[in-house]
Specification:
alpha/beta; 12% strand; three-stranded parallel beta sheet; 8 helices; single chain
């Protein structure tokens, strides 16, 4: 597949647009030119006045008033297929729109400034196309890392939803740690248990909101910050070894010990516990 964009000085817009196309079409060839060959029927962006250009009269503008640039137009086309409609809108709002706005208005953006610094200086003999290819590779890595994070969170949601369906007594058991707050906070889950990176198992109280710290049910106040020996004496749980001073986290030797700690917490005298 062949795509064309403008030659000369490059900007974050055409750089990230190129990076996105390289992700969507591995092996794509992107050529830079000042003139579109007559009869060319490949993909054209940031030049030529077509559907992926924004320099012409009547170029698209978002409902919030932020004008599209080439990156935004391509993201509108390909983003939902990569990460889903909801996440595509989030990435557009927080990452794509600021770059589009910079390209259209020159308002300034730190990332756009860094990309621009890859252009050859006035007295450099470096090839502009080679500099462009270099920074496109960096932009592609940035996008790939963001997409990998999104995909991992989507996989986590699926796994946690499956575990939630098997919840017993308000306790959700995970076979391995995964981001769980987006799924469990709105649910009836009180605690989540999963293997600890340090060995044994961890249990956490589930907050009422993903971004909040207010727990549905904290661990008992008497456990907060106590030593392992004190915890075992207070709880009667032989494998209990740590309770965070803020009472949102415990660690234990076994899954059964962690579950027992959660059950004790739910029967402790605290107004938010069931």
């Amino acid at each position: 597949m062949l795509a064309l964009t403008h030659s000369g000085k490059f900007h974050a817009d055409d750089v990230f647009a190129s990076a996105l196309l390289r992700i969507c079409y591995p092996g794509i060839e992107i050529r830079r030119t000042f003139e579109i060959p007559e009869g060319f029927d490949g993909l054209i962006f940031d030049i030529g006045g077509g559907r992926f250009d924004h320099h012409q009269t009547g170029a698209p503008v978002r409902p919030n008033g932020v004008p599209y640039a080439a990156f935004g137009l391509l993201w509108r086309e390909y983003g939902p297929g990569l990460v889903g409609e909801e996440e595509a809108a989030r990435i557009d709002a927080h990452f794509v729109q600021p770059l589009d706005l910079d390209d259209n208005t020159g308002c300034g953006h730190p990332l756009a400034g860094m990309v621009a610094s890859f252009n050859p200086s006035w007295d450099s003999e470096a090839s502009s196309d080679e500099c462009f290819a270099q920074v496109v590779g960096i932009a592609q890595l940035i996008l790939e890392k963001r997409f990998e994070l999104v995909w991992s969170i989507q996989r986590a949601r699926k796994m946690v939803e499956g575990a939630l369906a098997q919840m017993q007594d308000g306790i959700v058991l995970l076979e391995r740690f995964a981001p769980w707050k987006a799924v469990l906070c709105p649910s009836e889950a009180q605690f989540v248990v999963y293997p600890s990176q340090r060995g044994g198992f961890s249990a956490q109280g589930v907050p009422s909101e993903p971004e909040g710290n207010a727990l549905k049910c904290p661990f008992p106040a008497a456990w907060a910050g106590r030593s392992a020996s004190e915890l075992r004496e207070l709880s009667g749980i032989p494998g209990l070894r740590f309770c965070h001073n803020n009472r949102f986290l415990i660690t234990a030797e076994t899954r059964e010990d962690a579950i027992a700690a959660c059950k004790q917490a739910m029967h402790s005298p605290h107004p938010s516990c069931p």
